[in-house]
Amino acid sequence: MEVSEIIRKYGLSPLEGEGGYFRFVSSFSSLDAGFIYYLITPESFSSLHRLSSDELWFFLEGGRAQQIIYDEDRGEKHELILSEDCRHSLVRAGLWQATRLVSGEYALFSTVMCPRFSSSMYFAPHDGLLQAEPSLKEVFPCPQLL
């Protein structure tokens, strides 16, 4: 399936700031949780950011995607390949994350957060982070910091 068809099929829109395409799908009011569809392409990926809540990722279809999770306090960087062989990932609150496509034309995910996402939960990287771990800037450039 073509990227434009997937965007149309799922009613996705560009996700400003982070990159990729998304659509809020639903919330679970009793849990104050919510989930989205999220699509990345070679040109539009999830740029480096952190959230103040855990985020659970589910790979749905498409190519392989590299997810980097960086613990700034410990100076530890972990890499995971999300694909048909590894369909989920949990990014803990406060850890830096970025996800990009490594094969194929796209990767489609669903992500779940509890509590449900709000813009106050999103944090872009600071200069000190990219100086402490330069590989994050090289692998996942953030246009606002370049």
Structure report:
- The chain is built from three helices and eleven strands.
- The protein is mainly beta.
- It has a single domain (3-140), classed as Jelly Rolls, CATH 2.60.120.
- The longest helix has 8 residues, at 3-10.
Count of runs of 4 or more consecutive helical residues: 3
Could you tell me the CATH topology label: Jelly Rolls
Class from helix and strand fractions: mainly beta
Unreliable spans = none
- Broad CATH class: Mainly Beta
Order of helices and strands: HEEEEEEEEEEEHH
What is the residue-mean pLDDT, rounded to a whole number? 90
Q: What's the alpha carbon Rg, rounded to whole Å?
A: 15 Å
Could you give the distance between the termini?
A: 33 Å
* SS elements, strand count: 11
Tally of individual domains: 1
Percent range for β-strand residues: 35-45%
CATH level-two architecture: Sandwich
Overall 3D form? globular
Q: CATH superfamily assignment?
A: Jelly Rolls
Side by side, the strands of the main sheet go 1-2-3-10-5-8
> Helix amount, in percent?
10-25%
Largest sheet: 6 strands, antiparallel
